[in-house]
Structures
1.
Amino acid sequence: MNHNLLLIIISSAIINNVVLNQFLGICSFLGVSKQMKASASLGVAVIFVITIASGVASLLYDYVLAPLGLDFMKTIVFILVIAALVQIVEMFLKKKSPAIYKALGIYLPLITTNCAVLGVALTNVQDGYNFIESVLSGFGTAVGYTLAIVLLASIRSRIREEDLPAPLRGAPIVLISAALMSIAFMGFGGLSF
Amino acid sequence: MTILITTLVIAVIGLVVGAGLVYTGKKFEVKVDERESAVREVLPGNNCGACGFAGCDAMAAAIVNGDAPVGGCPVGGAPVAKQIASIMGVDAEAVERKVAFVRCAGSCEVTHNQGNYIGVMDCRSAVLSGLNVTDCAFGCLGFGSCATVCPQDAIQVKDGVAFVNRKKCVGCGLCVKACPKGLIELVPESKRVSVRCSNHDRGPLVKKVCAVGCIGCGVCTRQCEHDAIHVEAGLAQVTYENCVQCGKCALKCPMKAITLPPAEYMQREAV
């Protein structure tokens, strides 16, 4: 059992990395990775939100949608619930824990529309995970996202110092770096336990 | 039937979520000082950091807390200071807008250059290399590191010297930090008489490398009736508080190293 749970975390964090293997959440991955500090903050915020969201989505699916046979409505319901959930969490943090709120800053509302959050919730349902498995899979995915964005941010901080050929400057070199990272992560596909 | 159930379930979920949002919104409402958002509205919003705080939001909070003066925004200058003062209910001390000024006039035409620098076209790299770009050890290198950092696109390099567009300049001071030669300073916007040279060398040495450099002769000091220009360490310096911009120093400067107010330029052409 424990072996299985550990496997879920590792598989969702590294082997099926949400950004580099499933290509979800690319927009924030490329947009925010300019600065290391911002990337790390976003990563923490994503871990926070995805873990909660996948738990809630799993509960909602198991106890509301599945019994009523409304499987086909899961996408819309998840969007609705996740967006509201993030807002509520934001308000809660603002009042109860200004320190965390300040650290996560603008990234919390930004994540509301991150496709990775929705993607995890839907994948969990697709894989037939129960509540605990969903939360762990969400956590693992978010850790994978954080890993990817922090790695890209550190690569970009080095790229900035380089004297690149003009056509490669800006977005092109970032996309090439991301693609190389993706290829590197594909190598984890051969891992077996 | 399925449609009915679906609609009903989604509606109920929507209602629950909406009610939850309203409830949390009320329950966890955080009171923000009204003055803070009002001050934030008035500030320019460049987030340039020239005030010393991390952006306009932080500046607004600091003003309300009394950690920063109402006229602390160098970009907004007097108009913004006045508005903030009325929000805070205090008198605004007169703050004049400052603009960047490049203290070098050594364009390619007037300087003698036998530079041996080969490398990245960047002022900081050039200085680090230890090689010569210009013969004048103090002068503008003309690679435009200042122009690159300028958020307002107010600096242009023409003919090997950086020029500041005083209309576009917001006085954020990023160029002052970026210039490895320390050539740029912030001067009050209305003051147009400035020494356009940073060379501290003795006269003959200056003349050797530049046709418009300050030779520290002191003619300007003798012309000035307001004690506003002095030669310090071989270089004339304007004391802006005393300067009335009569332009006499500039007219008599043998090297024409002092700038003039626009009206006085005409006079100099006549002379």
2.
Amino acid sequence: MRFEKMTKVIALTGAVAMAFGLAGCGGSGSGSSASGKGGKTEILVWSWDSTLPRTVKGFEAKNPDIKVKVTNVGTNKKEYTALNNALSANKGAPDLAQVEYYALPEYATQDKLQDLSDMGASGYKSFYTPGTWNSVNLNGGVYALPMDSGPMALFYNKEVFDKAGVTEVPTTWDEYYEAAKKIKAVGSYITSDSGDAGFFDSMTWQAGAKPFATSKDGKTVTINLTGDSKVKKWDDYWQKMINEDLINTKIPGWSDDWNKGLNDGSIASLLMGAWMPYNLLSGAPDASGKWRVAQMPTWEKGGTENSENGGSSLAMIKTKDDSKSKAAYKFLEYACHNAEGIKTRVDGGAFPADNNTLKSNEFLSMTSLKDADGKDNAYFGGQKFNEVLSQAAKNVLPGYKFLPFEVYARGIYGDKMTAFTSKSATLDQGIAAWQKDLQNYAKQQGYTVKE
Amino acid sequence: MAAVTSGAATQSSSAPRGHMGSRWRGWLFMGPFALVFVVVFVVPVLYAVWISLFQHRMVGGTVFVGLANYRRLLADGQFWSSVRRVVVFTVVQVPIMLCLSALMALALDSLRLHGMRFFRISTFLPYAVPAVVSALVWGFMYGAKYGLVGSLNAWLGTHVDVLQPSVLLAAIGNINTWEFTGYNMLIFYSSLSTVPRSLYEAAAIDGAGEWQVVRRVKLPELRGSLAITVIFSIIGSFQLFNEPSVMQNMVPGNAITTYYTPNMYAYNLSFSGNQSNYAAALAIVMAALTMLVAYAVQLRSMREQMR
Amino acid sequence: MSVLDAGGRRVRAAERARARRVAADERAERRRAASSGFSNPSNPRRSVWLTLACGVFALYCLFPFAYLLVNATKTQADFTSTFGLGPGRSFALWDNIREVFSYQDGIFARWLANTLMYVVVGAGGATLLAVMGGYALAKFRFPGRKAVFAVVLGAISVPGIALAVPQFLLFAKLGLTNTPWAMIVPSLISPFGLYLMWIFSDQAVPGELLEAARVDGASEWRTFRTISLPLLAPGIVTCALFTIVATWNNYFLPLIMLKDADWYPLTIGLNQWKDQASTAGGQAIQNLVITGSLITIIPLVIAFLLLQKYWQSGLAAGAVKE
């Protein structure tokens, strides 16, 4: 009896399996195949950004012959992993992919991306902010359109600053140091850093450093961190902050502890890109109304220099299928250049990269964020935060270059900082180790390396 | 045990042998497994060996480099530090875990527990939790500032930090122990349950005490299942990956580096470093090391198995 | 045909009766041992101290579940601001569950269905292959037999992570990436299942029985189906349990193979939700991650409890021993 039951179970299992399997078969295979049902061109987009999917509806209404599928493949790193996989297999790559500015050179120099200048994007220079346009413009080609930008700003918890007696927002790094001491005295840290490469890049960029360069033919790279006096200036400053225990090195950025720290005021400020507001709202909802935004502290009194932190572009993966690339370009254009598309994303929390939006009254006069339920939240206490951030975008120093293997470089930065964050080595030593590894890596990858 | 073993031997000898043509009948049943196995494991392994002989360069494309990747690996300090780490991990964590499993199995088998059913199921339950989820939950609890450890610190006025680099490996070992003790316990327990009760009866008549029964009857019985649990545990801890990689951004100060374990190193090499050829070489070397250790530890019992 | 049937049935019935007798004896003996302690050489009475010691261990095993349960009742705001084991300011379990199933157009339900499908097809298939393979290893002397297990053990020593790239490239060439097959086909291999079924078959299927069937002229396949399979049933349940857990919890394979959220299993989906908190432009939804994790493990826990009788008897019948 038991046996009969068993065979029945097995038979049933098989039947269910087959039904599912067949269903699975029928449903799959759409992916990025040339054209979908009913003569529609289907394009596949990879992005981890939450605002891009919102543009699909508006776009499809205007382009009924194109179907857009946006897939979230995880974090930025995971997307690059997946992209590398798909590119090396020559299969399964999307038509469009969200790529951060720092990763763009890597894909462009390997000839994986479509040069958009012949498709009509060459004349967009004045449309975007100089910083973002520079980033997508590589060796004379346009390899992506800017989606958003991340000019650095100082986000701070006014309540904690007030409690510590920091009534004037620090405008120079010296003032920031003094403020840090006062904030430490009331039991908080002014900010945290447990070894983040993006942060290091942004801070040295703001200090005026240009440690990396790639030759025109893409075969020679310059990696000179230890010899750059501007890098040294930042290192020395930050080392002093760490030595005096003014920075929390125990809480890794973006962890739950970090969110809790932002929530309860034990991390009192952030030096971060302009895309931060919505992350604050979702990560530290209790602190609503306490936070404010200010320009970055600078090295000289009255300085304005700034840098970018993060920010993404939308790039087109090279394909031989002409109809696909045309359709893909249409969506790219809509999401990154069309006023309606941009507005949809900005309303969803993206920080724009185009001058029109940055200048628009509606954008500049915003005083609240929309929360997940669509309600207004005066997170910055009614401050017109976009005025500050928009100004910050204008102050970005031009000319900073990323490495053609920046994804790798950032991946191993933390390894070199282990000793630094546990205070058994200096930041200088960590940077020197990083430089050495990068130079070795570049040589292995066939580059000629210059210091 | 003796009785069971001899019984198995008779069965083996009665298995068909010698008929011409019937020799291959076993493949009728082995075939499907073998076929899928070849596609899923053997071909990729061979493919990995093949690509480990090349190097892909961003400038210059893919070139044949012979054994250069292996030479580089042998001199790679990061690789060896990761190997050292998993060896330490294996030497410490596996015995602790297996001892706990064996003790729990003996306790259950002694029939002296109240609520046997509860203990059986509750100690086995962690095995049902995906590694991702368990690393996540333990990671939350470990947090020295806001986690459970943090709450305890605040309460007791201590400054314990289980995520600091010096004890981090132990913290990860604890997660693994939590996940797999029940699983191994069940394997031990089941092999203990096969001991005929009459054997105990006989021992009791001989006047053997409980500990003597454990030593003379039960522990030898565990030897067989020990072989397989040891092998699977060694392979498992040499391939440590899920827990440290999920915890990577929960642990302060980058204490979990990109080369924390050989598997993590391989992952980071191939996926963010454009060095999948080098990663393939690493995989082959690690496989060789793992096999070497597994066979060295359990060669004899495997031979018996292959009778 | 009919003779064979009758023969098979007779043999089967006899074997079943024997097994039943043995099991009944065992049970009676164990009961006696537990209640009177007559056959237990040492003190038969239950020990409070031993129970307490094991209780500590059980507490250790169950503690993270308690944490998960408590935190599944919290809102995102409460999760980041209240004590880990204490209650939140509001009881949000039902809201969380509702939100888990409605977030992103209810994709969680899709992931759940995917996972079920992978388990049914993948683990079901893995069990079948392992049963057949284990049976072959135990009951046949075929060329290459000795090599099989050595090769299997050797292959699983290769770090799976590093195999992922070759596996991915291979599957991409076959056009299987981003389809359920990429998840199912590799799940079909369970080395531990093979081992389990090998040992189990060795003991549960008497050689005489097979000989008798062969003498009757039954084909190997028929003998397997009608005689061996029923005897293997408890082992099959045990083996299925292990493959189900392995498939249900598989993380790395789908991470590499699947890039279409519509085909994600729960583990990948949950991890993607978790990653949202650590991505610029993402929304932190740890409350949903925790609640989702809880929902993910509940079906397995229920399966364990329901199948407890079977897998314990399966293992106890001598599944793993030399």
3.
Amino acid sequence: MILQPSVSVPVAREPRRSRGGRSTRRPTASLGWLWAAVPTALLALFVLVPLAEIVVQSFLTDDGAPAGLAQWASALASRSLWTSLGTTLGVAAASTAGCLVVGGFLAFVLVFVPFRGSAMVRRAIETVVSFPSFLIPLAFVVLYGNAGVLHALLGPAAGRFSFTNSVAGVVAAEITFYTPFVVAPLTAAFASVSRDQLDVAGSLGAGPLRIIRTVVLPEAAPAIGAASMLTFLLTVNEFGIVLFTGAKDVQTLPMQIYTDSIVSFDFSRAAILAIVQIVLSVGIYLLYRRAAARWTTAKGSR
Amino acid sequence: MIVFSTRAKVILRACFAVLFALMVVLPVAVIVVAAFATSWNGVLPSGLTFAHVAEALGGDDLASLRVSVETAIIAAVLAVVAGTWAAVAARTAPRPVARTVDVLFHLPVSVPSVVVGLGLLIAFSKPPLLLNGTAALVVLAQTVLVLSFAYSTVSAAVLRLDPEQERVAFSLGASRARVLTRVTLPALRPAIGAAAGLAVALCMGELGATIMVYPASWRTMPISIFTASDRGDLYSAAAGALLLIAVTFVAVTATGALVRRARTR
């Protein structure tokens, strides 16, 4: 649980207490909080200034001459920007859907059909979350690549399955890597479904599928919503898997930003793509915060 | 509980086992085996060798392993100090200020690592602060990326603090600094330890921001693994990845142990 960066639920949206209740929690009324200015100033220098510099760069040529809106106009008119955006969203949506289905199933079995060793399995799933994402495409090339294990097993017929260098390869790798991120919050959500309610439904003769549909899923809906927003954010931002897969036709925004700046030194174009990416990611993040806050209040109200 | 027939349970568990093996066990196992394989183009690797791991433990690769560990530790310390500082200081701030600090410190979590790298590269490639081509920029990039995780781990614990203890300490005449070091920070120690372990693990595997800003003299392990994989040398890449996982595990365990020891003192 320690290595679960993702499910840290935002603090500001804590269920609101009354004003009086809140002030009693504060140790003393003093100006000690002014100390917060120091780390905040550092954050501004190393996060906000760079972000502002990206915006400035998008209006400059690579030599630093002012370019006005010309570069924005040409970037927005070019097809490659929209293709990248489409690829990013498509890969992220497919990966998120896959993670929810597979992660939902794994969490479901862990909670409702437990077996000997399920605690160990759970710990293994929590551990792989802290591994770097590029391990997965690396393993996939050995397993499913053109000269890989699957190829040797199936012979020439495996040609149809060599997907490691395509969109399908990226999506499969992202599903594999991000499913463990979904299992932990969904396990928690399923475990918090009230046992009494399940027993009552069962004793009234409802079948398993009906219980899942009418009791489990509605109860877990807020958690599923929060987990899917988070997975979508992480997959929209994913870079290592796309880089290691190295598929020519999978140019997601982060990949394109890297190529434009480091490979072709076109920093102005990279800056424009980066702004598109920031707007997209921060937007999804805000949705996630709302979803997570709803999840916490739903939990608190029981 | 949801009622299932014995047969349904067996089927569900079998599906679970297959998925778990394919998605969690197999990728890690493949990396481990490939690290020791002479080549692996058949169903099984064609031979066993320690050459790749030995190579990863010598020369350039050892250097980048050291670079990774140093960068991760410095970045983690900086991020945990800044995150803890912000979380503790903002607690007594007026609501709008606390809220702003909270939003600001959560901001880097939503910005993709490549964009963080790009921003640092553009901002610090010119005066007044010229950091382009230095190791400091790599450390800075990783610090920024883990700052949010450090902050949110500690600030969640700050919310659960019992203000009574501090009030008692104050009423007994303890100074502000003494209350901070003797009451508040010790109470936060588990969260600070967790934040440090998490930060080290994330920094060790960081690729997106590092690849944007690293100078040739400061290559971290993930960069070396990518270089090996990019030139088609899968087995060296696997050996590097295996070492990276092993060292990360040791570093995270050591961080946890350090924090526990500090607690019993």
4.
Amino acid sequence: MTNTKTGKKVNVNKDMMQIIILCLMLFVIIVIAGILNPRFLTVQHLISVLHDTAILGISAIGQTIVILTGGIDLSVGATMLVADAVGAMLMGGQNRIVPIFICLGLGLLIGLINGTGIAYLRIPPFIMTLGMMATLTGSIFIFARTSGFASPILRHLSIGKIGDIPILVLIWIFLAIIMTVIMRFTVFGREVYAIGSNPKASYHSGIKNKKVIFFVYLISGLFSAIAGLFLLGYTGVPELTYRGGGLGMDHTLSAIAAVVIGGTIFTGARGGVERTIFGVLVLKILFSILTMMGIGGAGKLLAQGLVVIVIVGIYVKLEKSR
Amino acid sequence: MKIKKIIGEWYIYILMIIIWIIASMITPYFRQISVFMTIVVFSVPLALIALGQNLVILCGKFDLSVGSILGLSTVIASVTMNDNIFLGIFIPLLVGTIVGLINGIAVSKFRIDSFIMTFGMMAVCQGSGLLIRDYPGGIIPMKFINFLLKETANIAWTPIIILIIALLVGEFILKRTNFGRNIYAVGNDEVIAYRSGINVTFIKTAVFAISGFMAALAGLFLSAVMASGDANVGVLYPLDSITAVVMGGTILSGGRGDYKGTIGAVLILTSLSRIFNLIGVNIWYTYIAKGLLLVIIVAIRMFGVNEQREAEL
Amino acid sequence: MDKFLRVDDISKSFPGVRALSKVSTSFNKGEICALVGENGAGKSTLVHILMGAMKPDTGKVFIQGKEVNITGIHKAREYGIGAVFQDPSLINYMSVAENIFLGEQGKFRHNGILSYSKIFREAEKVLKDLNFKIDVRQYAISLSPEERKLVEFAKMIRCNPDIIILDEITATLDYESVDKLFEIVRNKKDEGKTIIFISHRLKEVFSIADTTLVLKEGKMVKKTEAKDVTEEGLVSLMMGRKLSEIFPKRIGAGRKEREVIYSIKGLSIEGKLNNINIDIAKGEIVALAGLRGHGQSELLKAVFGQMPKSSGKLFIHNKEVTINNPVKAKTQKIAFISNKREDELCFSHSIRRNIALSSLEKRQKAGFIVQNKEKQEISDISSKMNIIAPSLSTEVNSLSGGNKQKVVFSKWLLALPDFLLCDEPAEGLDMGAKSEVYHILRKLADEGKSILLVLSDMIEILNLPDRVVVLREGKIAKEFNIIGTEDRETLEKKILKASIGVN
């Protein structure tokens, strides 16, 4: 059989296309923001707007890795708020180190339980993390006291700046870079992508699926707890207003939106932690634009939805175009 | 064995009866008619939404937008119904169906992941609802409320009838129509269904349209209960309906399950909230109970399903 | 000039591969035509085009002189074309009866409501007419592979198509069932239906076909009356070259000393395998033969640890080894090359990622992948295996079937196995690729590796392995030594007999 020429050579591969789209998106959205408010275009302003983006960004790191394996973590927001509340309770405004470790430990514990149920008991991720979120929602409101403050150190880390750059943003970027390197250059990272792309093939090729999936949820729990602690540090007091729909659902949904806008799709074929950074930025700047236009929470929600639909539509077109 | 089969099919109702028995032993209040009425009334919206969600999950997809459609529906009703009851009923239903259709077309024709599509649509509908009315309010005419919730001899018959009709309709569609059988085929294996001449695109689009319609319908009912429109009221429904469907025996990946189990699960979930309320237990315990119950039931079922698979994953 | 079905100038290409090239031919009413050709010759593609599952790049189809545009399966049905494909086409969690009437259950109503008792009754009628004894109420998942094929056949035939296409339908069937089926086919011929029958088993072809149509590498070679051609004639038309060119020489003929390294003892899997004992020596290629679905693939999976077994042990160099998952198998240097690419490849990933997948731990330092070592090893093995692609970052999805299979091979070879399990290694490959695969396997054997294959193509069975073990209904029916056997014809007959259970 003759191997015919493929017609058109695969010059620009899909990965490249996606990065181009992401950069374009970011560029466009910054331009729009700049038109509305010229001050926006100064690096200073941009960075200050992004100050609390880091919190979303950190929680989205864990969610990205989970989604890369083809799963989902609906308990991200809940874990964040648990760390937030427990941290405040234990710190009580004093410089104690132990509370931080306890909160991180809680995050790991939550991730451990999720991971065990999903990897070893074969409970679908949607169900397991949903159940976890429900359990956490109930638990936190029963056991938490609304009192408590962040410790000064935490406050400093969350609000402080080095020069013009918030420490929090530096921490976020730092964590993101570490995780990106792990995902792209280690065996573990390869295994994560492989499992998301084709779990059967990974298992068949001798990869310990269960172990990897277990770890992934562990990581998500940890990062959610970290994000929660910084949330505490940023606002100073724990966030315990229940907006319905499950504890911290708005955080969870924003994290998912950021991951999706960043181009990570549920099949581990494409995407990664570095893309999510773009997604987070786009989302937050979008929100800023809306705030500048005087659009409130409702409009923001609507916009978030539309953006997700449109962008995913573009990505799907991209996938199909071969 | 026969007994295993019967338990497999009816475990939800067995569980429900056990829960009711335990509840009536713990608290005398549980034996009052009014409590059962509350359970029934609050089960209606969830049961209606769960019907649509059930069809969607049987096809192997998700519909996260149901709660927002419900909220939007109550808001539209609260704004239009006072002027014209008919319009107040018709427009929300139309909107819900159209939203569902958009979801369906995006998922079936454009192959956008259903989680993401309905996630985005959820935000769109929620936002729209809030834009129309950002705090609960509006007017729902008494005629409408009475029609749905009128009590004779201390029993509101309409909600009971609605539940029964929902059960019959749901089971009928799934077991006794070509459409329902085709849903099972699509959920089991889309490719095989397509090769057998089934219009897979139509089926997938239709289930989302139905889901949207049911969500709007549930919204109309709820607006009568609340006597107002509230865009935020539906926030819990997407996850609760998926919980009910999965607890009731439908497999998350589609192709297996039915609606009677779902209704049983709905009744259990609503009963639990009521019971905890009566016992004086903190409402937050219901969340924990729901979460644990869901995970435990699914875990147990997984062990039953495992027998047929190879040692994979 | 009463050609009932005519195809004119049909061509179809996929990226990198010409599946069909200007095929023009015709079929009469009441004609049974056997469509033969090697894997990848284009038979399935032609079938898919006739059934509307694919659109041809060029060419037209005519039925009774009128051009038809088959846009989809339902259109094909309307035009009276029915097919039984190779891939499974039953819904597992539905009853046999519903499967037979899939999509049209609504026809059976009682007082306006869908009636299951009617569906069951009608299904029973259909099966009775065909003389198939299968319980219509059971879920399709509990059918044996043979029963499945029969039900798929029933599902197609109840629509009473005028053009019947059967794609490798006898691969899983018993002697009796094949007889029953052929009788039905002959009846349909007498009714004036047109039947296109695809099979690898040339003996069958001659027992049923009126005409034969040979495809080779996408082109039509010849269409002749069955009585005007012999089996050897067909083979040479199909392959286009001598067997000795396609298959590597077996040096093993001279080997006297067999050093057994791998011993499978007492392997059983409930419902699939019963007390299997097989030895594989160093440098030996052993083939598992027999009807498809009689436990061959399950045997490989069990040895690889991918399928739980009810009993059985594996001995390597006389030491017992427990393997219950692929990770352990890899540690023991066992590799399993499956024919199901969905189980082997991450389609949206690059060639490089896929090839590296089974040997990641060999090129890592503190968890990090040693990039240049990986690039080197992968580019080495790709050129050794002759993988044709724009670059190593190309998405595996866009490769031809043959190249995909080579990626799978490369992946496992990098894991440096001593024991290779292969399920139909050359399936779906074109002639050139097949020959390459055969040569690679023989080379590995000559290097001292042990190879256990599942083969169903008689030509492969007779020319590639050193020993053949025929499985029937999960048990070992017979073992044959290929080397040292002179008479091919007799050997082939014996193997066939053992496969279908005739003594």
